[in-house]
Amino acid sequence: MSNFDYESLIVDIPDYPEPGVVFKDVTPLIGDPQGFAAAIDEIAEHFMGKGITKVVGAEARGFFVGAPVAYRLGCGFVPARKPGKLPREVLSESYALEYGTDELQIHLDAITPDDRVLIVDDLVATGGTAIACAKMIEKMGAEFVGFAFLMELAFLDPRGIIGKEFNQEIFTLIKVD
């Protein structure tokens, strides 16, 4: 684990996107050259040597964490997008959010049974996005290696929720209790 103080670069936004929710804004961390580099390097180094061939990142904040992790691992990046954003045939998966529902899609040819896939996102709260991505990876026949997040809202028990469906490793840099 790094000695970098990631939490000092996270800003709490009360009542966003709705009353009672405290949004954890990671954009200051992403905007800080040392913080961003430390976070990407730490996630990538944790999974280095595990034969990962693809990183999946969920729209949209998963893109700016997942893509540089994929680059550092020397593998491909696969965007999991909202409906209607991908131009070719897709696989879709609906999921529950902490305050609603949504859907993600991946191009059908983006992942093959020969791939070893890591899911990377900025934050895990109730695990819905991560579970949707993992389900699509399994449906595509690939080997799913694990999850990596900048931040985990541990008080919502995402590990327990994800653990009911998947037993792969969950790696996070920041845990909020």
How would you describe this structure to a colleague?
The protein is α/β, with parallel strands linked by helices and about 180 residues long. The protein has one domain: 3-Layer(aba) Sandwich (Rossmann fold), CATH 3.40.50. The chain is built from five helices and nine strands; from the N terminus they run ββααβαββββαβαβ. It is globular, with a radius of gyration of 15 Å.
Instruction: Report mean pLDDT, rounded to a whole number.
Output: 95
Order of helices and strands: EEHHEHEEEEHEHE
Considering DSSP H and I runs of 4 or more, what fraction of the residues is helical?
A: 25-40%
CATH class: Alpha Beta
Globally, the shape reads globular
Biggest sheet details: 5 strands, parallel
Q: Span between N and C termini? A: 19 Å
The total tally of domains equals: 1
Provide a count of the helices. Answer: 5
Give the CATH topology: Rossmann fold
**What integer value in Å does the Rg equal?**
15 Å
List the uncertain runs: none
Q: What is the CATH architecture annotation?
A: 3-Layer(aba) Sandwich
Number of strands: 9
Our estimate of the beta-strand percent is 35-45%
Structural class: alpha/beta
Spatial strand order of the main sheet? 4-3-7-8-9
Describe the SSE topology:
Layout (H helix, E strand, L loop, with lengths): L10 E4 L7 E4 L1 H5 L1 H15 L6 E5 L4 H11 L2 E5 L9 E8 L2 E8 L8 E9 L3 H12 L3 E11 L4 H6 L5 E8 L1
Parallel strand pairs: 3-4, 3-7, 7-8, 8-9
Antiparallel strand pairs: 1-2, 5-6
